Every structure is written in structure tokens, then in C-alpha cells.
Amino acid sequence: MRLELILGLVVVAVFLAGCVQLPGVGPAGIASGVVVKSFSVVSPEIYSGDDAYFSFTIENIGEADAKNVKVKLFGLGTDWTIPEKTISVGDLTRSSPAEKIPGGVAYDEFKATSPSGLKVDNTYTASIRVTYGYTTSASGKIKLYSKDYLNTLPIEESRKIRTTSGIESFVATKGPIQVSLAGLPRPLEYAPGGKGSITLVIENVGQGGNYWASEGDRKIVITTFTVYNTNCVPKDPIVTLPRVGSKMIRCEFTLPKVEQFTTLPVTIELSYNYFVDASTSIKVLKVPY
């Protein structure tokens, strides 16, 4: 197996030529995590009984390391002979866009022998499924003011503060599963015994599907979700994302005493497996005699 960090213009040209078709992906799907840069057959037409070679190139364009990456060939049918249906790639390192460092890249090929003795020409669709383990991490700060302190400010200044967003900052790594914070349109205000809440929003924005135990279960694991010193991970950390839309996890926490202003740290990490598919076609010609 050949692993490279940079493939150059050849891969880009193959990708732009339209060899990759991603079935079942709506317009909202964004290329993220491990993506199929190219998937094609070396000879688009072969004779019945001949060998076909399906080559692929994949790249990790996300900001987390991809673990246990595998590529599976499927869809050709039982009348094809395929010695190796799954290729284990290993791990692909994360990309670092800020430093202009690309993520790990792998390319290889499958060999498949076409059905023998065909009486008519047939066109077949071959697909690959790339599976891998991934994480999405995020950190941020939310604003907390003392209510008594705000009440001592001039009315206009106090009003201005109270109408700003309650989120000071929030940064998440790029990947097929994205997170954001909601439910905090204005800063929190401390009063004795007061509580605050915030909502974690989780959404599949990629071009494939997330899973945990089996492909298609749409599950992820919330490994970390803390606000200040409150652990907000649900009792059952394995949650199922909806087919459409997002999953929301609400966290309630006790506000710490503050004299004027402070920020509360938020830390999030999700673990999951992910898959993405690509397809190409090959025409098998009948025996010419």
C-alpha cells in the first residue's frame, strides 16, 4: 500500500474529471473529514472474463486524526471474483489549514475479475465505502456579569451589555460532525442561588453517515461536555442524531459568584465513526466470438 502526503495535480485532474459520484448526498453535504478525491476504473471497457482494476485516492481534510481507515469495494455482484474486498489504510493524520499542512493521503487499487461467458454487453456500478474513527472537539467561553454590578452602570451602557450575545468565543475543529452553542442570546447575570443553562447543538454536515456500533445507527458518543465545573455529559453518553436536523443537549449549572464580570469555560469532545461512499461504472463486453 502506498501512502503519500501530497499527490499533486494528477489527482486534482482526475477528481475534476468527474470520476466520483457520491450517492444519496443532498446539496447541504459538505466535504469534510476523510473524503474520496478520486475513484475510477483503469479501463472503462473490458471483455467478459477479463480483470478490472479500481483505483481510489482518499484524503483527510479535517482537523482530527482519522483512525482505523478502511476502504471496502461493493456493488459489483456475486458473479464477479474479488480477491480482496477490504483494504486497511491505517491512520490518516489531520490537516492544519492555518499552517497550510495537508492531511494524510492514501491511494491503492482493487482487482476484480469480471463474469465470464457473457452473451450481451453489461454495464456495472462499482462502489467503495470509506470508514474511519473521528473526533470533533470544541472550546469556548460564555459571559457572566454580576447583576448588582450591571445595575450600577449608566442605563445605556447596561442596556448595551445586556443585548449582546452571551457567548464570548467558540471554536470547533472541522469535521463531518459539527457542534455549536445555542440558548444564550445575552450574557448570564449572577444573583445568589442563580442558575444558568446552555444548549449543545450537534449536526451531521458531512457527505456520509455517522455511526458507533454498526453502520447506519447514527450514534455518537459525548465524551466531554463541561461548563465551568459542571459535567454536562448525559447519563447515557451515546446519543442518536436525527436523519435530518440536529440533536440538542441542554446543560444547567449553578452560577459562581462574580463581583463584576468573568467568563465560564466550555469544553466539548465527541467521538464517532463515519463512512462516505463513492461510485463509478464499468462496461463489460460480451465475448467477441
Output the keywords.
single chain; 289 residues; mainly beta; Immunoglobulin-like; eleven-stranded mixed beta sheet; 3 helices; elongated
Report on this model:
There is one protein chain. This protein is mostly beta strands and 289 residues long. It folds into two domains: 2-134 and 274-285, Immunoglobulin-like, CATH 2.60.40.10; 135-273. The chain has helices at residues 9-16, 147-152, 155-162, and strands at residues 2-4, 34-41, 45-47, 51-60, 66-74, 86-92, 105-113, 122-146, 167-172, 177-182, 188-190, 195-204, 209-211, 219-227, 230-231, 238-240, 246-254, 261-285. The strands form three sheets. Strands 3, 5, 6, 8, 9, 11, 13, 14, 15, 16 and 18 form an eleven-stranded mixed sheet that branches. Strands 1-7-4-2 form a four-stranded antiparallel sheet, with helices on one face. Strands 10-12-17 form a three-stranded antiparallel sheet, with no helix packed on it.
Q: Can you count the beta strands?
A: 18
Q: Structural class, from helix and strand content?
A: mainly beta
Low-confidence stretches: 1-28
Number of domains: 2
Coarse morphology: elongated
Briefly note the CATH topology name of the largest domain.
Answer: Immunoglobulin-like
Largest sheet: 11 strands, mixed
Radius of gyration: 25 Å
